[in-house]
Amino acid sequence: MEEVEVKFAREGRSGIVAVGTYLADAAKRLGIKIEEDCVPGESKHCCAMIVTSGIDKLSALTKAETEHFSENGRRTNERLACQAKIEKPGEIVIMTDEKKDNPTAEEATEEYVKNFSDLPLEKKISNLMKLEAIALGETVSYVINSPFTIADKVMDVMAEFGFKKEEEAKKATRPAEETAGEEPAAENDSETVEAVENEPEEKKE
Description:
- It contains six helices and five strands, in the order ββαβαββαααα.
- By secondary structure, the chain is an alpha+beta fold.
- It has a five-stranded mixed beta sheet with strand order 2-1-5-3-4, with helices on one face.
């Protein structure tokens, strides 16, 4: 099996792969992360890279590459990693595009404000209407879901009220022994004493 050494200059990594390997697969094998948002048939690719040495070891430009580069322009010895296949042994040196860090929320906001200020008046109005529609949609969604939240709270209050009534009903049916020490029992005792004191003299004798 014929082999080829592939070097990724920016990342400082290199390794041996078999002839017949696509550049995208060679990159993955060596731990090089490349964009995978390619859409074959729509000329949308994000895996372009520059072959600084060994361009002759690769297959010819494919139809997808021709269409992509005709629409987006082509740098010297630029190939699409998902389309370029290694066909000859030797050495290939590749320079990948510099990765851009994802912008922070603040940076994204500043970029949006800058782009918005550069828009013509009609575009600004159109964008504002879209934002207003989004805000209105979120508001309607909140209003629609609010009754469920209110209903949950009402159910909690009713459940608590029902619990209290149940406790009162249980208390009313308890045996007298369990309520002997409560105030109502004390009132009954005082009524009994008063009744004894008011008995006729004959019964006392």
